Structures are given as C-alpha cells and as structure tokens.
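Sanity check. The docking grid for zinc ion depends on where the pocket ends up, so I'm generating a full predicted complex first rather than guessing from homology. Inputs follow.
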Amino acid sequence: MEDGCRAVRRAVELARIAFTSEELERLCKEASRIAEYLASVGEAVKGLDVEPLYHVWEEEGGLRDRIEDRRVPLESFLPPERLDGEGRVKVPWREVK
Amino acid sequence: MRKLKTAYELVEAYRNGSLDPVEHAWRVIEEIGRWEGRVNAYITLEAPEAIIIQAEEARERYRRGEHRPLEGVLVAVKDNISTSFMPTTAASRMLEKYIPPFNATVVERLVRAGAIVVGKTNMDEFAMGSTSEFSAFGPVRNPWDLERVPGGSSGGSAACLAYGGCDLSLGSDTGGSIRLPAAYTATVGIKPTYGLVSRYGLIPYGNSLEQIGPMARSVKDAALLLEVIGGWDPRDSTSLRIDPPKLSNLEPLEPGEASLCVPREMVEGSEEPVAKVFWNLMGKLESEGFEVLEASLPEVSKALPAYYIIALAEAASNLARYDGGLYPREDVEAGDYWRHVAEARARGFGWEVKKRIVLGSYALSEGYRDEYYIAATKVRRLVRDAVLRLARKCIIASPAAPILPPRLGERITDPLLLYAMDVYTVVANLAGVPALAMPAGFSQGLPVGVQFMAYRLGEDLLVRLGLTVEEMTGLRGVAAGEG
Amino acid sequence: MKAKIGLEIHVQLSEAGSKLFCDCDSEYRKYPPNRNVCPVCLGLPGALPVPSKRALTLALAAAKAFNCKIPERIVFTRKHYFYPDLPKNYQITQFEKVGGAPVCLGGYVEFLNTDTWEWVRVGIRRVNLEEDPGRTYYEGDILTSRYALVDFNRSGVPLLEIVTEPDVRSPREARLLVEYILLTLEYIGATNPRLEGVFRVDANVSVEGGERVEVKNIGSTLDVEKALKYEIGRQTMIVERGGKVERETRHWDAARGVTKPLRYKEEEAEYLYFPDPDLPPVRVTEDLLAEASKTASRSPKAIFETVRKLGVKREIAWSIVSSPPAADRFLEAVRLGGDPQVLARMVGVDYKGELRERGLDPNDPSRWPPAKTLTELAKLVSTGEYTYDSIKGLVLPRLAENPGVEVKAVLPEKVSDIDSLVEEVLKREVKAVRDYLSGKKKALNYLVGAVMRAARGRALDPREARKRLMERLESMKEPQGEG
Ligand SMILES: [Zn+2]
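Predicted complex below; grid placement will be based on this.
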C-alpha cells in the first residue's frame, strides 16, 4: 500500500491538481484500491500474443482537402478582462508581490 | 404510470391538425414547472417565451406544409453537447460560464430538422458516473421514485422523458451512460455503432468508446432521432463514411428472422428481481417463436477493468485543457502559473473527476503504462473479437443493469460497487457495436431494462427487435406520475 | 577537442496553406493576435482534429527527400505537458513508440560542404509532423511578468521535427546542414525559410569525456554555428580544467552570444504518450506516395548535378542552386536555347548580386525575370550583338528594378558612330594622344575609357573602341615616319 501510495502521488503530480493532505490521504486509499482492481487486466493478457486495439474498427482516417473555415473571436466565449489591449490571452504566470 | 404521446405520434397529430405545437409546448412547460424542482433534470432551460416563439414557427410550417422531420418536437440535449445558444457545462464548475462559440454537429442537425431545444440536461460531471449524482448542480432524481437515482451519466436526459419534460432527448454513452438511465426510467436509449454519429461538439470523456445517442419514450422515436443525427461528418475523423441510417419505417422483427442469445456472464451476476423480469421477457419471446440460445462470453469478465482503464486514460488527457486559462475561474487568484493551474483544477473539478484524472495519469505513466493502458487495449481486442463473433450469429440479450435503480447515496460511497453497475453495458463500447436498452417490465414499481446488442451497424435489426418487444410489453410512451 | 553534434530542427510548413488539423491559415504572421483561430486550434471542448492532406503530403515529400523509411500507416500521438501556449495541454505529434508512427522512421541527408566541396552524409533518426504551439509574450522579463500573454494564431501550424543522428562533425557543418535542409524544404514548396521564426534548432552536443548538453532556442543558421562554437569551447574548457560536463539543458542567448542554463524549472520529462483516439491511422497510399515523390523530385543535389553537367563552375553552380527561383530560371533559359556559360554568369553571379546589392531577396520568385528574357539576353551576347558587360552594366540593373519588363524596352541603344566618338576624344585628349604616340602604351586605356564615357549609356563594345582607336592612332604615326 505504501508503494501504491507513492505511485498515486506521482500521478497526482502529473495530473497537476492541488490536494490538501487530508484529501491526499483519502485519494491514496481510494485510488490504490481501484488501481489494484484494474491491475487484473495485466494478468489477463500476460503471455498472450495480442495486439493492442486503439481504434475499434481499425479503419484508416480520411484526409481533408478543405473543411469549412470556422474562425471564432475569443471574445465569443472568454470574458473581456482576460484579454490584454492587443487581444492576447492573459494567463497568470508569476506571483507579483 | 401514465401514457404520453410519443414524438412520432406528436408529429402525426401536428400534421393532421389534431394537435397544435404551441399547445403541446405549453403542456411540456407546465410539466417542467411541476416536476423540475424535485427531479433536477435540467441544468439550463430555454425561456418559455423562446420555446413558444419556436412552436409558433413550427405551427406556421405545418400550416404551409413545409414541416421538417422533427418540426415542433421538444428535444432536451445533454449538457456535454455543445450549443452556441446555451451554456454547456458538462455539469462541472469548471465550465460554469462557458458558452461554446459553435454547435455540435448533432445540434446543427436537430435544428435543421425543425426540433426545438428545450434545455440542457443534468448529468454526472464530464459524464463520469453511473447515477447522475456527481453533478456540480446537484443530483438528478428518478421520477419513478424520487428517493432513487435515474442512472447515469445521462440521467437528466432520461428523467425529463420520464416525467414528460421533453419529447426526445440526446444522451452520450461512454460505458452505458445512455442505457443505464434508459433502463432505470422505462425509456428507450440507443448506443449507436462507434462512428455512426458525429462526436464533433461532444465534450470528450473517453473518445474511443463514446457515442452520442437518442433517448425516447418509444423505439420508433429513438429510431427517428438517430436517423436525424446519424451519418458521416467531415469534422469527425472517427465518423464512418456512410449515409444517415434509414430506421424510422421498419417493421417489427418476426420469429425466424434472427435468434437471440444470452451470454451466461452477462446475466448471472444480476440481482433476483432483475433476473426475474429479464427471463420473463425471454420466455415471452420464446413463446412467440423466437429462438433464445444460451451462450458464453468469458472475455466479458475482464471487460469492466479494461473499459475503466481506457476511459480514465483518455479522460486524463482530455481534461488536461481545463487549467484556468481559456476557462477562467474567478475564485482562484492570479499567481504562479503552476500553482494557479493546480488550484484552478482543484476548485473546478469535483472529487470523482479528480480521482479519475489521477487514475488515468497513473495508467499512462511510465512503469505502469504496459500493465494498465496497453494491457487494457489488448483486452479490448479480445472482447471486440469475441462480441463480433457472437453477434454474427445472434442478437445478444442481457439485462441493461445488474440491479434495480439504487437509492441516492447508496452506490457512490464505494467506487467499485459504482463501477460494477456498468458491467453489462461497457461490452458494447469496447466492441464498438450498437446496443439498445428498453423497458422489459417493472419490479416493485421500479423499471427494469433489457439490453440488445447487434453487429456493427446493425441498428436496423435492434430497432426491429425493439418494436417486437414493445408490442409484447406494451411499454410504449410510458411516464411516471398519475395520468 | 572533438565534439559530437546532433540536431533537432523544427520547421513550420508555412506553405501548407492551412493549419495541420483545421482550416486556419498556416501563414499566421499577417493577423492581429488571436484572429487566426477556430475551435479546433484553440482546443475547445468537443472540437476535433482532421488532418490536412497538403501538410501530410509535404511531410512525406520531406521524408522522401531525406531517403526515409516510410511506414505503411501514420499514427498521431498525444504528448502531454502543461504550458500557457498549449491550449489542450497536449500536443498532437508522432511519437514512434506506444503505437505511434512518424512520417520517417530513419534515413539520411547528403549536404554539400561548400568549404571542401564534398558531399557529407548525416543520418536522420526520424522526422515527425506535429502541431506548433501558440506564442507567449511576457510583460518585461519572463521571470517577473505577472501574466503570460498568449497569441494562438500560430497554434496548430504544421511543424516538421527533423532529428539527426549525432553525426555532425563541426559547428560549421551543422550550419551548412541546417541551410541545406531548409533549402531542400524550400524546393519541395513546404516552407519559406526567410519568414520570421519559421524554424528553430535545438542542438545536442558533447565533447569527449563529457555528458550530452542540449542547447535550445537557436533561431538562425548563423547562430547554429555560433552557439555550437561557444558551447564546445565552454565544455572543452571544463574538461581541460579537470571538471565534469553535466547533462543539462541550456538556452542560447543570441543577443549576448552565450549559452545559459535555464533559469526556470524544466518541464517534467514524462509525457504520457498514447495514440490520439480522435485520429485514426492514416494509410500511406500509393497515390499519396506518388504525389510526395513528385513534390520531392527537385532536390538541391539533383539540380546542382544538372547545372554542373552543363559545365558551370561549382561556385557559380551552387550560387544558382541555393536560390530556387534562380535555378528554375536558369534551367528553363538553357532549355530555351541560351548559352549555359553566359546564363550561369548572368543568373548565378550578376543578377543575384544586383538583387543583393539592392537588399532584395534573391529567393523570392517575383524578383526574377521570366526565363525567356534571360535566354534573349544570353543570345544577344552569344551572337556578339551586345557585350556581356553592357548587358550586365546596363540591362541587369533595370531588370532588377522591374523584372517583368520586355527586353527591347531595356536594351541600350547601340553606338552607331564610333568613329565620330573616337575623333571627338582624340581632338579633346591631346595630352594622352601625345603620350601614346611617344610610346606610353598605358595612355591607350585612358583613351578607351574616355570613348566609353562619351557613349553615355549607349552600348559600345570596349574591344571595338580599342580597335578603332588603335587604327586611328597608328595612322597618326605613319606620316611622322615618312617625315
Ligand atoms: Zn483553427
């Protein structure tokens, strides 16, 4: 379980979600238990010669020559205060004291 | 129990002038007023005046003989399907204020067919759930028993049908999210063949598994809606290059035209009342002359964990974009980028979503990818091949869910019990094949649903069998409440 | 000290017309911020990517040009990392593992080292096609800026990542290699290397006894050489002083001409790769390959060899080849019957020089006259009607000003009265005549110059002027001899 928790913590870092320490404890418990259950698929295919299936019909995708242009202004879904004077998106970047 | 007009009957009545679309629209608005406070099927509702204006336009079109296939029919759309004229939240705080600048392809097709969009239905956040309790806007309740869940994640789309708050609805089905709610509310839902319906505009959960599908109070209605939304979309690379299916004028299936089979693994775990209703229906079919065979699909035993791994991995990826940038949150202060991202995601997502993102990242991370994600895709091949093999011989029948609709809070405390609700439905998503869920009967006043699965693009076969079953059960156009 | 250098060259397919997965413009520079964006390249929920045929054909043409092994099917993968300019927080790329398949699985390129005139072979490890992220600006310094200001106009532009083996022997060769690769892509019609920010180079460099250091963010071919020289010098110094070169990522500061360690935390090196479920594999069909081969048929090497076979000196031949429009005009003009030697000088040396002198881009096709104009001029020289110098001095500058103009409109008037010019000069330049006659042969050159000046821009063959002058001067001597 210790090990399971370490793996969950690593996944939390990758997921980039903040958790309080109590939440993290609860998450570790729940996620480790689920992960343990899900691990049964690894057992199921061990030693079997099976190719992964990523796209269910294994058909080739098409290429497009043109597709109708659907340009949209950001203001159509983003609050105006999130744009700077030139129309660029303001994303919080550095703490300014 | 009461009977309401099906969408097909509505269109008939509009056409022959026995019913006025405006009058009907008022009736539905009244039902919503009566039920919505208790059921919570909708996240966003169109203003009554706006609905009425559109109903008046429909009336005009009928008068002029220019009506389209769904003219004046009130359709509810699950809130993970993009609409440019209404917020689309996927039941998440993260998208509380998001109004997409475009319509999903299915919405474009609905509107072009003359449908009136009544509102956006409540659901599990980002479609992650099987009970419709994990919504940032409160749980949906089952109109048949308000203490119980309507199933999920398309619970709102099923519940509004069950109380008469819409004529048709759209759901999405990643692992059973149309069929479980259909089964729990005595409505009809189809999970189409993967690629039959465009996913353009569907807020993704498990892209390789999910389809938008029709929900209705009758098989014919579901077929009619699927006909409108189906067919190739150049904006979705995974959509199949086929014309919209012809489904709304099919005849019921006759014995001898196809046989049914029941895989042992897809019924033996069911609780007693469910199994009883299910076998009862199979017995009726047999007595009508249908061949019902026993079968075995041992691959199904690993379908559930394989399904969850694939769905969670894809979800972790799909949900990476919600970082407080293009979908800003006012409750998170500006500051360091990385902290801001983690904080925005902490506040914007609910617990279940966060847990699934973490698990999905886990399944894809180095050292675990092979035994989780890659192994799951291999199991998927085994399941698909087995299902396709069996479906060539017979229509695969099973209960839609192993249990009756649970009470609120009953299942969500234990994630593994929650996941187990999907055990019969995920098979169709892994295999890509179409599946129909419809009422089989009632037990203790609660609906029990049956599921039929066919081969790839066998929607016509499912619809025909559905018509046959509907005639046998008489459960067409049923709704909760006193008639 | 000997160094091992491997390069990662990112080149935008600026001439692809559209972005990789949507129809926004691949040439984004002309738009105000965030005006070349759509739901797909903004990564809005539910928007789906559809690969562009043109971008894929260009990428395959590049793979052909680099002698690559091309897979039967191309598979796009998702690469996850969080950054403000990456709207989905994953980039669609082609990772060669976990089910992915890039456009090139390995090949080589032979570039011309124009210092030694040897063809040098460098292995290509892989080439993959991916989305470019948006552009981030900062208020002042990256370390203190309150906001990252993001412009998504570039987001989704097709980007080719070309990864070489660590075969490159010197900074100079690294530069020549990059120039050659860019030229190859220019011939294919994939990119315009002169656009701002159209390519960036990352270099991996190690000296004997040290770890590999990655130098990022090199934006010009000149800087490739400078950055590598600097970095090799820095590493050599460490090793010579008995220190250890640690494995790290550094950043090229072009303004200061130094490499610096990154001042901010590097991304985590775990990218959670998996095949993009929204993009089914693309089969590399015969048609697609044939089109790619056709597109790739014009390689700098092949054209250089063709030009050389016409007897053109290698320096001039390379000058022609290094400007694709020059090579096109040259070969066409030869085909139309122009003399290759005359044309080579005209195209590869003097016209190109004329453009350069005016600060005009010799690789811009619109700066070049049609081939038939060049053939006409070459013929005038070959037939002796005009001297090369009068074409060079009097015609080429006017063509450079207006490449579309007719030859006869810029052809200088020819001097028809040489004798009277000669007489005029002899009369005026009494001293020079006297000097010549007294045996100072140099005075003749002065007199030829005076006659040429007297022609005032009209065409006059200086050899003809010299001959006439000599005749007259000799005739002036004779009477004296008699007397
Ligand atoms: Zn775009």
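Relevant for the grid: Residues 2-257+433-479 of chain B form a domain with the Amidase signature (AS) enzymes fold (CATH 3.90.1300.10).
Also worth noting: The interface with chain C takes residues 81-82, 88, 90, 95, 98, 100-102, 104, 199-204, 206-208, 234-238, 313-314, 316-317, 320-321, 323, 325-326, 334, 337-338, 341, 361, 364-366, 369, 373-374 of chain B (CB under 8 Å).
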